[in-house]
Amino acid sequence: MTLRVQFWGTRGSIPSPGRRTVRYGGNTPCLEIRTEDGWLVVLDAGTGIRELGLSLQERSDGAPLEGDIFLTHAH
């Protein structure tokens, strides 16, 4: 099975976006995973979910979005 993974946030519990964190990112955990058949799986919904959502809207070209969201922890 082939999966495509994109990290939209990797920070710990406190977001800190800005020039000092641009290399590794300042958003809290959010991962986009795509299966071979294109199914969307989102792991966690940290502050990176905002950028992911904007990207998904842009890529969907108005089509409905479907997928699964799994939360590994809550704050």
What does this structure look like?
The chain is of the alpha+beta class and 75 residues long. The chain has one domain (4-70). 17% of the residues lie in helices and 25% in strands. The protein is built from one helix and four strands, in the order βββαβ. It has a four-stranded mixed beta sheet. Strand 2 and strand 3 (40-43) form a beta hairpin. 17% of the residues are buried. The model has no long low-confidence stretch (mean pLDDT 91).
Structural key phrases:
globular, four-stranded mixed β-sheet, single chain, 4 strands, 75 residues, alpha+beta
What is this entry, summarized?
This protein has one helix and four strands. The chain has 75 residues and is an alpha+beta fold.
Task: Record the SSE blueprint.
Blueprint (H helix, E strand, L loop, with lengths): L3 E6 L20 E5 L5 E4 L4 H13 L6 E4 L5
Parallel strand pairs: 3-4
Antiparallel strand pairs: 1-2, 2-3
Strand content: 25-35%
Number of H- or I-type helical stretches:
1
The whole-angstrom Rg is 13 Å
- Widest sheet: strand ordering: 1-2-3-4
Average predicted confidence as pLDDT = 91
